[in-house]
Design brief:
mainly beta; single chain
Amino acid sequence: MPTSRGLDRRRKRTLTSLAFVAALASGTALGAPPAVAADAVSVDYTCTGPGAPDGAQPLQVTMTAPASVPQGGTADLAVEVTTALTVPIGVPANGVTGEMEITLGGAGSGSVTATGFTNPGAIPSGSTVTLTGGVASVQLDAAGTATFAPGNASVHVFGVTVACTVSGTAPVAASTEVTPA
């Protein structure tokens, strides 16, 4: 039979997992000046792992991308994620980390992974979670408009990982014009 200390540790991990999933709800992309921050898009995610909520949960994802890059150039993206879920316990600063796949479309193809997501400040119990600092770089070789859409994500909190899959189709969150060389 688990000790009360073991049960408390398991409960804390489960609650932390919920906090991380909530924190993954915000995304912003940063680009080389001039950068264009698009409005946040709502993306439904289904998450699995300890403490993951049942059913699809909406996350607000904001990306910032450069307005344009020359063909063959690199677009630096910044992503922020915010959730409507609230954390059941306080989470210390940098207590949640995560990654998010970004799907390229239009003049871009494939995907890149934004890393570096965290909560820079402590999150009080009962608060929603915003994760900032997600960054990715992508080389764009074809002229035209490259688009960027949120993809699958992982959240890590108190040693627990929660995997989140896009439910349905994620909308385009940002775009960059790739000018001919």
